[in-house]
Amino acid sequence: MAHMLHAAARRVQWSRAGAAKRAACLLAAAYGLKILYPIIRGRVKRASGRGGTQDEGGQGAPHCTGSRGRASPAVDAEFFKQLLELRKLFFPKLVSAELGLLCLHSLALVSRTFLSIYVAALDGKIVKSIVEKKPRSFVFKLIKWLMIAIPATFVNSTIRYLECKLALAFRTRLVDHAYETYFANQTYYKVISMDGRLANPDQSLTEDIMMFSQSVAHLYSNLTKPILDVVLTSYTLIRTARSRGANPIGPTVLAGLVVYATARVLKACSPKFGKLVAEEAHKKGYLRFIHSRIIANVEEIAFYRGHKVELKQLQKSYKDLTDQMNLILSKRLWYIMIEQFLMKYVWSSCGMIMVAVPIITATGFADGELEDGQKQAMVSERTEAFTTSRNLLISGADAIERIMSSYKEVTELAGYTARVYNMFSVFEEVKRGIYKRTAVIQGSVNNSRSEDKAELHIDGPLEIKGKVIDVDQGIICENVPIITPNGDVVVSRLNFKVEEGMNLLITGPNGCGKSSLFRILSGLWPVYEGVLYKPPPQHMFYIPQRPYMSIGTLRDQVIYPDSVEDMHEKGYQDQDLESILHMVHLYHIVQREGGWDAIMDWKDVLSGGEKQRMGMARMFYHKPKYALLDECTSAVSIDVEGKIFQAAKAAGISLLSITHRPSLWKYHTHLLQFDGQGGWRFEQLDTAIRLSLSEEKQRLESQLAGIPKMQQRLNELCKILGEDSVLKTMDKEE
What we know:
By secondary structure, the protein is an alpha/beta fold. The protein contains 24 helices and 14 strands.
């Protein structure tokens, strides 16, 4: 009786201890549920309400692109359509190096899966030899395990190597196509000046393509091998269970239910990683744009001492980037916590059940009796089966976890895909002459705009109806308007004809269309109406006020944009270039900078006047029929400037010049004058009359400049003397 009481007491004590443990677990679970329930509930509500609403985020972000008005990138039909279009760039033909790399990568992934299954079975046999106390079998299987590790590690390294090679091959294909499109038909200029959809093409051409290529290659590896692992490990587990007389239906159904429930919860809780990553890439590009802008204008900023303003802009753009990155990190924190809880702990507990049930219920693992009446213990077989099944199940669970975790990577890929696809779409449309600009017009500006100005603006997309016809001689404009990319009509219709041997002087106030006319003649801006007859681009040469200095030698500066091979094909030698530099009074820099092969940052080495004379040297090197000179000698002395213009006329180059120096008028035969109100006048230039009129204008300006001061002094004298002025008396009498 006492023995029974002691046993009952021990049973009660055990029950109390178990109850305490259970209570602690319940309290921890309740606290976790209290913390997680509002988060999960909010995620589910937002997920269910996404279909009827549209996000309004990102309106205050600076430097907006044209894709901002579209729906945020997501894993939908549009994403797969864009990915299929980009696939044509990855694999331009059936037999290609990229396809060969993909096949080798796939073969390595398949080999790794079979090696994993073999190693799992070998692990079970090693454990069985330990349980059966067979040292010789244990040593043999261990050596076998070490031997199989050599090809296994090689395959693992090969998978990483081929993944990186595949990403590099994809990136090379995309970069080659992007560069070819970007530099075709002056797309690089038109994307910036004529179109407003790509804010930072350098960001899209470098980082976006790199991240997209890496994401595609990594995602292929992260999806192909796990799917194969799940299929083969499931088949192996089911075959093993059936061979031992166990029913695999229950564990299979349990696994399917757990995976389905996990997928539903993770999908409901998943943030919009595609939109978040695309926004992060946009903010990175804007920060790089601010840095490059400071580098390009460093001297002007230093002169103005504007470092505080630039510092504030940098800090603001960096803060926007860090805020976006912190937002992504905070969203990933809760998502990864839920993901790890479900995939690590819930799946582990279910895996133990899935392994244990077949082994416990299988008839092939039951202890039997030998002929002499002794029991046959199946411990080693059960241990082997448990170890093998557990390793296979861990491998399969890890594969399913990677498949489900890949959804986050797929959403991030959707963001990169949208940016890269949008870049190629913009390049193709701009190449075909389709331009779209994001017009940001304030209401106050519209209200203050006068009626006549409103008529000189075209709203909506601009339609190109004009024609450009290449001719051997002459430039003829027939009813050609000058319209800016923003739709402002500077001149409604322009008609003039420049024949061979004519030199045209172009004048007018700022903003009247002088430089815009040069952009149209150079083919940078389209001809929206009328007909333009002009020589081919190789017979026209444009020289701006600030000539571009390329990267390279001193020789490269003179022959730009030709290469040294092009120079030799044209029959030029260094002696010819020396004579050209003598012509523009620039030969001294050959000795000063160390010869023709000197490589320097010529933008900083040469002064403003030297850079302008270098631009004129390029004109003499290329010998065009027509030279478009846009204030290209404003920093050159008058005497050197006159000699250069005289040499250009002697070389038979027709000059179309924008200049404000009267000393250059004598080198031109005709005048195209804009009035700044949309009007223009084309006539023959009489230099003597124009110079006399200019001198008279300057004389009157100097005389009239002192009248306001004389009038003010006269009023002060009248107050001091208390008398009226004779001029006032005459005004009253009149």
